[in-house]
Specification:
Length: about 250
C-alpha cells in the first residue's frame, strides 16, 4: 500500500505548567499500528424511595483514556530486509520477532542499542520539582492532537545482545486526556450560570459587563479576575479567552 508524500511520524512533546513545549520533542522511529481510545459515561444509579424505577441520572462523561504501543529496535533488521516504512504497513512486532542480530564486539554493542531512546521515554514519568508532578504530554500523529497526562508506562524488553544491552523493546503508554471536564463543558458554551464558561474578549468588553452576561449580575467580576490571574482587569485585550467559574463556586469563594 503506497502513501502519497512522506510518512508522518508520531511526535511526543513534553509540556510545562503553562502548556508550552519544553525539551526536545521525541519522534518515534516506527509508528504504532494503532491506538486505543476509550471513554466512560457516568450515571447516578441511586433511586429515591417510591421512585417507580426512574432512569439513571446522567452525571458526566469522563476524560478519555488512550493507550499506545511503541516499538524500539536497533537490531538493523530494517536494513537487512530492505523494509520501506513509508510504503509498507505490516505487523512489525510479529514480523521481526525471530530476527537476532550478530554483534561481535563490545564497542558495537555499546553504540548499537536502545538504551538512550528508552531513557527519553522514561523521562515522561520523572517528577518535576518546579511543577510538583511529571510533565503533561502532547501527542501529534495525523489527525490526532492529544494533550494528556501519563498514568502508566510499561516497557517490555524483547531482545538483548550478547553483552546484555537491550536492542528491542515495546513501550506501552497509557494516558488520560488532560482537558478537564470543567473546560470541556465550558467549550460547549451552555448558558447556565452553574456551569463554567470560556468567553473571548471582544472590543469594548469590560469584566463587569461580561460577568453580567454570564451571571445576570456584574458583582462577580473581582472573582473572575482572580480566577484568570488578571492584574489589570480594567483593560482587557480583545481576543483573550477568559474563564468564568460556576456561580455557586464563585459565591462560596
Amino acid at each position: 500500500m503506497a502513501f502519497l508524500g512522506e510518512l508522518e511520524k508520531m511526535i511526543v512533546t513534553k509540556l510545562d505548567q503553562d502548556g508550552a513545549a519544553t525539551g526536545t520533542p521525541i519522534q518515534v522511529l516506527i509508528n504504532p499500528e494503532g491506538y486505543k481510545e476509550s471513554y466512560t459515561v457516568e450515571y447516578n444509579d441511586d433511586q429515591p424511595n417510591n421512585s417507580g424505577g426512574k432512569s439513571p441520572q446522567f452525571v458526566k462523561v469522563k476524560p478519555g483514556n488512550f493507550s499506545f504501543k511503541l516499538l524500539f529496535d536497533s537490531t538493523g533488521i530494517f536494513d537487512v530486509v530492505g523494509l520501506n516504512l513509508e510504503e509498507t504497513l505490516i505487523s512489525i512486532e510479529e514480523d521481526i520477532s525471530g530476527f537476532i542480530p550478530f554483534q561481535d564486539d563490545d564497542e558495537q554493542a555499546e553504540n548499537n542499542n536502545i538504551v538512550e531512546e528508552i531513557e527519553k521515554i522514561k523521562e515522561f514519568v520523572v517528577y518535576q520539582g518546579d511543577i510538583h508532578k511529571p510533565y503533561q504530554l502532547q501527542i501529534n500523529w495525523g489527525a490526532l492532537e492529544l494533550k494528556c497526562i501519563l498514568t502508566k508506562l510499561d516497557i517490555d524488553y524483547k531482545l538483548f545482545n550478547p553483552q546484555g544491552f537491550p536492542i528491542r523493546a515495546v513501550a506501552t503508554l497509557t494516558c488520560k486526556q488532560s482537558t478537564s471536564e470543567v473546560l470541556r463543558l465550558a467549550k460547549e458554551k451552555k448558558s447556565s450560570p452553574d456551569l463554567t464558561h470560556i468567553r473571548t474578549v471582544r472590543e469594548g468588553d469590560t469584566l463587569p459587563l461580561m460577568s453580567y452576561r454570564i451571571y445576570g449580575d456584574s458583582k462577580y467580576y473581582l472573582e473572575v479576575a482572580r480566577v484568570n490571574n488578571l492584574l489589570n482587569f480594567r483593560s482587557l485585550t480583545p481576543g483573550t479567552e477568559l474563564i468564568f467559574p460556576p456561580l455557586d463556586k464563585t459565591q462560596s469563594a
